[in-house]
């Protein structure tokens, strides 16, 4: 073979006018394991989805085996030999491994499905991968995540894939299962199948990958051989230097008071051994990579998926929060990560949304509070045609202000903000930053979750860094991005 | 949620046949306490006769529900088919083959219409088939003021002949069921119905023509409703527009769901549906023999159906539990 297996050149992509990728290059050789790394929002997933045909690039060229290709549908990518294993598997749980592997391409004999051939060829692919403990006849829904992943990889190989993209393949795996994936990737390399490995986990990247491509803010930082770079240098490249965002300072008169929220040894099936205190007037940041357990802590505190171990105290009193209603009555508010699905009734008016928490909870409902809702909305600088406008017509930033207003209306003592600035414009972001400062000044305990490290660093008085469902470190507010990333990627102190 | 069952779980189909056996035992005991015998020939014949009509409808309904669709027009299609059959036969034995062909054509066309509108225009199947049902109802109400057509004696045999205690119509229904089981298992398009109902996106990403699969399911569902119409004609000796008032479509859906096919599609099968049909038939016979008030009878049927689906829903929940990162008890 001459030339690379894959050459992507000058890839640009923007969503709604916001550039996500600009002029990104990526080349891969047959049998190469190539890591794609970068912070949250650096553009890794978008690049991978362009390669998989889920998105189409605005500009740039893609060559496979020297032939120019252009995918407008995932099926085209599949037929060209590019398969993807996303975190959400494309498998049918009610079908068997063999049926899934051959879905849409069932072998036929005299017009009918040849089940024996289906089983045999699946067994052959699995044997080729060196997997012995997975039966082609097993129902996929009953398998472990690792085995489902193997089924996906087997499906990709049986489709004739030369290149497999894996998005955070170890995110849901237990340690022993990671071993299995390592062996599998080794096997793919021997077969000459290239693997594009998207991951945050530095150990895996250095264990597995031949070359590393670093993205930052949608731009290519560097592509280097893994042997030529140290983990520290890699982190430095991922974090890089960025335009400093302006964060409002701590307001004068903000006093750190009593502990309002205390979690002791909190844990459930997603997080473990969580010890965390948030005091009145304090902003505590929760940092961590995607899937590290940030949202799970918010959901446990708010009773959506409660802790099954440990205890929670609110204002010094132990409390068992088993459902959101109890959390609300205890004075806890949660601005959820998914504004449209969980935060708002999109087809209802601004007023109905802003009053929703008060209307739905008799114990926080009061005439005085209802009367203040309008003032609250205007103090947040809400831009809307009127209070009877449906919220789906508002911009993301204004929608978020409605969500914040509906919680502030209940006058909570503790507010948990999960990705409050996701998908909103710069102006609204700055407004929210000052609102967060004001809330602290008023004596609320604020728990802030943000993927953008700079936000956590810029706003929080203390930062708890999560890794794999546990708190890896608690850092002071002035910590650097590099320090936070070091703990978040599981490497420990600098 | 953390308690995983150690042994292999009983399959849903096995469970539903176990339930059928349970219903037979309990029903038999109830009838015996009343001084009767549920398994006397007359009662067996009654039970088996009841299975055939609902059976035909439920087999086709299983296919569309597997595809995550629905057909509320089957009762109307069956009534229409009975008229097509009886008027085409017009008392002539020689016309029977032509009539059967005409019925399958008309009912298949109704199914094709349902399928095409649902698959290609993206109309919710609930609405599509409700509308189709209304269209047929309107046509029947304006065109037929009473029974019409005449079924020759030879075709009426289909409604009444028995081999031992087993009515021929029930045997034909079981044959159709066997054919449907084979179709779902051995043909590509049948196999793809599970994928389309399980996750249409996954199916599409795997190269399956989801629209065509759904269309075929609806055509077959229409044709089994046509078969039910033929049976109605054979039993009544004439075509009957009034037949739709019996709300057969609800019985069919109830039987499918009782048989363990998920209303959300992608899981289940015709073997379970046959057991679901049988359970409903046994219950009806038991209620009849015990001379239970017909209104109370409906209450009991409703309770049984809801209870069964609640049990399936629980089993389903359990299976979709998230995989824990931290197993319970590690920290305690």
Automatic annotation (TrEMBL), chain A:
Record-annotated ABC transporter domain positions: 6-242, 254-493
Membrane topology of the entry: Peripheral membrane protein
SUPFAM superfamilies: P-loop containing nucleoside triphosphate hydrolases (SSF52540)
Listed SMART domains: AAA
Keywords (A to Z) from UniProt: ATP-binding, Cell membrane, Membrane, Nucleotide-binding, Repeat, Translocase, Transport
Repeat as UniProt keyword: yes
GO molecular function: ATP binding; ATP hydrolysis activity
PROSITE patterns reported in the protein's UniProt record: ABC_TRANSPORTER_1, ABC_TRANSPORTER_2
Compartments, as annotated in UniProt: Cell membrane
Record Pfam families: ABC_tran
GO cellular component: plasma membrane
InterPro entries referenced in this protein's UniProt entry, alphabetically: AAA+_ATPase (IPR003593), ABC_carbohydrate_import_ATPase (IPR050107), ABC_transporter-like_ATP-bd (IPR003439), ABC_transporter-like_CS (IPR017871), P-loop_NTPase (IPR027417)
Protein name: Monosaccharide ABC transporter ATP-binding protein (CUT2 family)
Native source species: Glycomyces artemisiae
From TrEMBL, chain B:
GO cellular component: plasma membrane
InterPro entries named in the record: ABC_transp_permease
Main location per the UniProt record: membrane
Transmembrane segments: 12-33, 53-86, 98-121, 166-184, 214-234, 271-289
Domain of life (superkingdom): Bacteria
Subcellular location: Cell membrane
Recorded GO MF terms: transmembrane transporter activity
Topology class, membrane: Multi-pass membrane protein
Key word Transmembrane helix present: yes
Keywords: Cell inner membrane, Cell membrane, Membrane, Transmembrane, Transmembrane helix, Transport
Name the record gives this protein: Monosaccharide ABC transporter membrane protein (CUT2 family)
